[in-house]
Inverse folding.
């Protein structure tokens, strides 16, 4: 017995000594400050987005001392070959901030004076530049999406909701459409909801010879109008008024048209019953256009093969899903007009090869894992390049595989996040790699996967971080409601398992999303680290409905959005609360957008475990959000009222028992501040106390303006300190 007591005492003394060493080491490191997070102290050095050129070359837009250049580089050596253009050579125009080549790279389109419209769209002043003659000519002011024709004769662009074509040699301008009108008719660019949810702005496409221009027309006359007051700096506020179809309301009537350049004739293409045209793409045949259509439920997709010469239309492919079908840009036509397509039809997203008539040739990739990116097809090598989660859903690897599905090869690191930027001929790629332990590293690889050279390593950031209190994420899984969910945990550097720590859970939880990934820190990660050093534990759990674990897992929340996601966060919190070092009386949750909806829902319906929540730009009723996103997962409110209302916190504000902070920008054109205003009114009606931070004119990201993010995160830090850290 004396021997046992001696061993216990010795073990205690050793643990105490180790903790003292850890504490002494931690005390020598610096605290992370909010100012450093938002002034760029921890920002990694990233490569500019490169533009792959013909041959083994790429170009970069470089800015130095107010001068802008487009420079050409060699993939083989990574050395600069030449400067294609410098803004200093043209003193009458402002430095350009965007550029694009024509097909043979003899000319450039240069953009300046960009004015943002919505999240992805903008208009600007654009010039055409002839590289051989060094001549610069104005295309137009306040125009959108200027694009060379493949025959290099014309540039098509949109302005004031109409489409124009400018001949490069004669400077003659042809007005393709004339009915464009604000908040009524849009030609050639998308409306708000297509831009946000189908992720494209330019809604016109040249065929391969430049003889036809296909485009979409949006008639949004009958779409309900949304308006926002913009406070600005003038004496009187202004109103931003735009068409926004909320769930169950009228969408724009979208139609497909083809303009014949030679005879300057427009014709409308009749398509069978559809609600959306989310993609149009010309095949390798000059006359053949393929249009993708979806029904309103977004679970019945057609590829229509249209002959522009005779207006014929046949169905090339039809895919039906019991829930919904995601839209991608992966449709690729090969030289024989067979095509590559990605689909979840076997339960996981994989690559398929079809012949020119839409008959399946073979399934190229197979397995209980997802293809997460399709990079392209190398005709000379008969090889497809893609990214997948084959080595675990939190990792991404770059692979090659032959078109027949044989000789698959891992080209990148096995773990972490690997993203490839391929040369146009697919002979080289620049691999962007990072993990939770390694900041972004850029390396040049051959198409066979041989590493040629490390380009950038961020070693200075790695060295600088050694001086700070940085905890490593601990990755694991947690079994919740019968599912193994991915999870990471952050603990204080001087973590003591004999102590009790408040817990803050972070999540987004939206369909197909991922927050538990083996990737490098973002700003939130540094904020979370700062909170751990104040004496907290941070946890992130990806619940049901999140991505990269198969269609069944992702679509399990169909028709009941936020119900199962909320149950998973509540159950996970209750399980974590059983850990001896978690203070079960002080558990909070926070999130942004969908995550703000989730944190609100968790606090209201999980008040027996959550005491505190922060909701930034939250949806509070799916009735307030747009048609395409919301109906994809819930159908319409008329069809599924319970799916909308049973999980919308505006309907049960009386359940609030804890500490609640709601944050929103009044200029949010995406998740309208209406969501927070309605939630606030519901809380007032229920006589519930809460905190709010309403920010004038800020959009969904709440970032515009000096110190905006610093001020916001200071507010959230104080709220957490008050209600979780100092509530013992």
């Amino acid at each position: 017995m004396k021997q046992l007591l001696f061993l216990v005492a010795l073990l205690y003394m050793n643990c105490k000594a180790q903790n003292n060493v850890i504490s002494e080491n931690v005390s020598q490191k610096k605290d992370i400050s909010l100012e450093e997070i938002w002034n760029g102290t921890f920002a990694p050095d990233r490569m500019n987005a490169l533009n792959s050129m013909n041959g083994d070359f790429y170009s970069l837009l470089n800015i130095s001392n107010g001068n802008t250049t487009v420079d050409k580089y060699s993939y083989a050596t990574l050395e600069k070959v030449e400067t294609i253009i410098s803004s200093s050579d043209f003193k009458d125009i402002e430095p350009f901030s965007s550029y694009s080549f024509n097909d043979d790279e003899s000319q450039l389109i240069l953009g300046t004076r960009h004015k943002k419209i919505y999240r992805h769209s903008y208009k600007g002043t654009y010039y055409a530049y002839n590289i051989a003659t060094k001549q610069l000519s104005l295309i137009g002011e306040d125009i959108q999406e200027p694009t060379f024709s493949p025959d290099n004769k014309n540039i098509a662009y949109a302005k004031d909701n109409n489409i124009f074509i400018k001949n490069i040699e004669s400077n003659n301008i042809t007005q393709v459409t004339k009915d464009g009108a604000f908040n009524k008719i849009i030609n050639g660019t998308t409306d708000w909801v297509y831009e946000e949810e189908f992720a494209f702005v330019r809604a016109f496409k040249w065929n391969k010879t430049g003889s036809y221009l296909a485009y979409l027309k949006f008639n949004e006359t009958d779409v309900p109008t949304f308006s926002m007051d913009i406070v600005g700096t003038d004496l009187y506020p202004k109103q931003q008024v735009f068409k926004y179809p909320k769930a169950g309301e009228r969408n724009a009537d979208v139609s497909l048209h083809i303009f014949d350049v030679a005879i300057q004739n427009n014709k409308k293409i009749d398509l069978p019953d559809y609600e959306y045209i989310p993609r149009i793409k010309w095949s390798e045949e000059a006359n053949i256009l393929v249009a993708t259509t979806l029904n309103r439920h977004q679970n019945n997709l057609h590829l229509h093969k249209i002959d522009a010469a005779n207006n014929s239309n046949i169905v090339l492919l039809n895919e039906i899903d019991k829930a919904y079908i995601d839209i991608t840009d992966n449709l690729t036509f090969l030289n024989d007009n067979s095509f590559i397509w990605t689909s979840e039809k076997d339960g996981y997203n994989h690559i398929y090869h079809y012949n020119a008539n839409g008959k399946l040739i073979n399934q190229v990739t197979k397995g209980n894992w997802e293809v997460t990116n399709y990079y392209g097809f190398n005709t000379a090598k008969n090889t497809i390049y893609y990214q997948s989660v084959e080595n675990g859903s939190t990792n991404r690897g770059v692979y090659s595989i032959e078109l027949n599905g044989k000789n698959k090869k891992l080209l990148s690191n096995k773990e972490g996040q690997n993203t490839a930027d391929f040369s146009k001929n697919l002979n080289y790629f620049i691999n962007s790699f990072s993990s939770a332990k390694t900041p972004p590293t850029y390396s040049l690889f051959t198409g066979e996967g041989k590493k040629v050279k490390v380009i950038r390593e961020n070693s200075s950031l790695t060295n600088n971080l050694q001086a700070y209190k940085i905890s490593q994420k601990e990755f694991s899984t947690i079994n919740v409601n019968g599912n193994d969910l991915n999870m990471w945990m952050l603990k204080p550097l001087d973590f003591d398992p004999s102590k009790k720590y408040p817990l803050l859970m972070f999540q987004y939880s939206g369909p197909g999303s991922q927050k538990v990934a083996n990737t490098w820190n973002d700003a939130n990660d540094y904020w979370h680290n700062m909170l751990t050093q104040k004496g907290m534990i941070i946890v992130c759990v990806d619940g049901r409905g999140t991505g990269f674990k198969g269609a069944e897992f992702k679509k399990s929340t169909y028709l009941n959005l936020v119900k199962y996601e909320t149950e998973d966060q509540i159950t996970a919190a209750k399980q974590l609360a059983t850990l001896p070092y978690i203070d079960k009386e002080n558990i909070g949750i926070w999130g942004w957008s969908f995550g703000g909806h989730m944190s609100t829902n968790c606090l209201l319906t999980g008040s027996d475990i959550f005491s505190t929540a922060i909701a930034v730009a939250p949806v509070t009723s799916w009735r307030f959000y747009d048609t395409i996103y919301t109906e994809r997962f819930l159908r319409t409110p008329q069809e599924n009222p319970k799916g909308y209302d049973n999980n919308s916190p505006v309907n049960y504000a009386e359940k609030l028992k804890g500490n609640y902070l709601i944050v929103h920008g009044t200029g949010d054109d995406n998740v309208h501040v209406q969501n927070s205003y309605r939630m606030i009114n519901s809380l007032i009606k229920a006589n519930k106390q809460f905190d709010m931070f309403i920010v004038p004119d800020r959009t969904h990201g709440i970032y515009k303006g000096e110190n905006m993010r610093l001020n916001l995160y200071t507010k959230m830090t104080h709220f957490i300190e008050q209600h979780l850290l100092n509530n013992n």
Observations:
- The mean pLDDT is 94.
- The chain has four domains: 50-175, 177-327, 334-435+438-461, 472-725.
- The CA atoms of residues 331 and 341 lie 5 Å apart.
- The two ends are 38 Å apart (CA to CA).
